[in-house]
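Protein 1 of 2
SEQ + STRUCT:
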Amino acid sequence: MGTLLDQQARIRAHHPFLVWESFELPGRLWTYREFSEATRRLAAGMADRGIGKGDFVLVHLENCPEFLLSWFACARLGAVAVTTNTRSAGAELNYYAGFAGVKAAITQPKFAALVAENCPDLQWLAVTESDAGIPASATVAPDQAFAALHADSEPPDRVVDPTAPLCVMYTSGTTSRPKGVVWTHANGLWAARAGAFSEGLLSTDVHQTMLPLFHMNAMSCQVLASLWVGGTVVLQPRFSASRFWDVALRHGCTWSSVVPFCVNAIKDQEVPEHRFRTWGVGINGIYDRKFKVRSLGWWGMTETVSLGIVGSVLHDDTPFSLGRPSPLYEIAVLTPEETGVEPGAAGELRIRGIPGVSIFDRYLNNEAVTESSFDDAGFFITGDRVRANPDGTLSFEDRIKDMLKVGGENVSAAEVERVIQSLPGVSEAAVVAKPDRMLNEVPVAFVLAGGEQDPTKLKSEIEGACERSLADFKRPREVRIVDSLPRANLEKIAKAKLRERLLEEAG
């Protein structure tokens, strides 16, 4: 990754790479040369503090320039950036850091105490000056200042190794604990090149980036894809409905990636004359007329590194579809008997690429789960169901895995259930999705008490446990103490019936 950045620093030296659109404090612009040099100085300073090849560094930051500077500085050193969701609870941070064995951490003032308390084995902690463009909520000790990490020397030379680990992103799965998805440097380069190809990016494109950088979408499809073509990234701390159009117009943004929450928040605003060419939206054809923009359907996962299914930036796709299989991957849509489905039928989606290049390298410290995630033919088992349309496009059907999609965040029902069922007053718990206008869906917990319990007290204990152990988007919006749970074969909880109940209530 350092090689790519240096190359663009030579070719696009004075072209803007990163524009920081701070909410309250002054913004800033980095040219390709300036950004490359800043990452070199940061890498040198991190090396002076003992960070080298193979060391894991926790990057617990909201969207800000320091996130990208730290990520690329780690890449230069051969260190591994472990990027974590800033909405994580303390117990989750403790798990992430401990599981990866992080050596140091970089965070911001409002998270500094949380990181220090829950990551006790850190050799050092660096804290940014502001809270992602907002004045610091806590005082930063001089020896912890992020600015003090920078050095005027050069980082140590190292042998270029595209198979070396680049970063770890935790993703929710159907098991009780999130899995650490390991990308290599080759994965990062693939994400950059494949994203630029799939999106039809040009060196003149300006990418408005407001989705979280600790997710695959913003890093792969926006930042790295823009880097590949020598384009510009306009970075916002987060999505803001009141600032969206103003930022887009001032910087002449031509590309962005949005989720339903973003669109719902701006759908009643007047649409100005803008320069947007395309929005990546998941399914195409929804927003084109309203927002005067081409919406590009696509599908990808943290494990797939880039887009395995993508629409065409030039030609029409079936409305409300994901697009067609990317020529950069192999796609299979299978029946339960693992044969290919007929046109018009739905089946399980699987994808095949080259591990460590076009598909993730492995799950961190979990060889057994890595192996079980692929079938005998080498296809990754996605856990999604899609419909194979007669024209070759694919449409999303549902998730086979027990997952919820809360405002763009994946939530494992099993992870939430594990927290609830750890309480002594709980016999069983089932977490299912309830439709939500703004967030698409939210978690609701149905709980069967064990023995004689005060329902009000038990509900309060469950809510407290979830608050201590889970990020806010994972916490149930409702906790229902019930006398019984519907059953399916082998006495398993029939979650489909619980979902049907919530759908009926929602009308």
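Protein 2 of 2
SEQ + STRUCT:
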Amino acid sequence: METKFSRTELLYGAAAVKRFAECRVAVFGVGGVGGYVVEALARCGIGALDLIDNDRVTISNINRQIIATKKTIGRYKVDVAAERVKDIVPNCKVTGYKIFYLPETEGEIDFTEFDYVVDAIDTVTGKLTIIENAKKAGVPVISAMGAGNKKNPAAFEVADIYETSICPLAKVMRRECRKRGIESLKVVYSKEEPFKSQTGDGERVPGSVAFVPPVAGMIIAGEIINDLASFVTG
């Protein structure tokens, strides 16, 4: 009998699809990158999703964020994303946290409950807090580097943080991870040189476009699904 995940099962097998349904994934940041991670994981049948983001949808999100429409402007992103997931996979357990994740709020999230963690936020302090807590809990984590001021979606790569180059955010993260003794970190980053904003404020607000952040998000989701499937297939 055909189901929502019949085509997924043809690729990964019934045991892997069952495994996906038993997994719980936390996505920190439900914007241009994270929103597409959530979308893809839901459509792959991940059984539980924890969404952490304190932002509301704004009009400037419409050009690139899957949850941003005229009707969702002003609403919390985690609420909009949760509704979308439930519309796709009603039995997925979705938990939303309307918090800005930093050391001051880290106690609100228990990383030991997750099977995988996604860092799709912008602030270095928050990213490092996510990564350190995931490492302490022994939970796999994947981190998104800079997707702003980029035009080439084909320039993204998956690598360890210490193998990255060009990306300004990755440079900062390499330095900070080394200071903290973080020996490895899977990241998705772009080798494309960032463009300067046409209005001259690129350092403050990066430009972005519809076809770049979604690609980073889909790559991240693919890494998660393939990693989780490997626990079944070996």
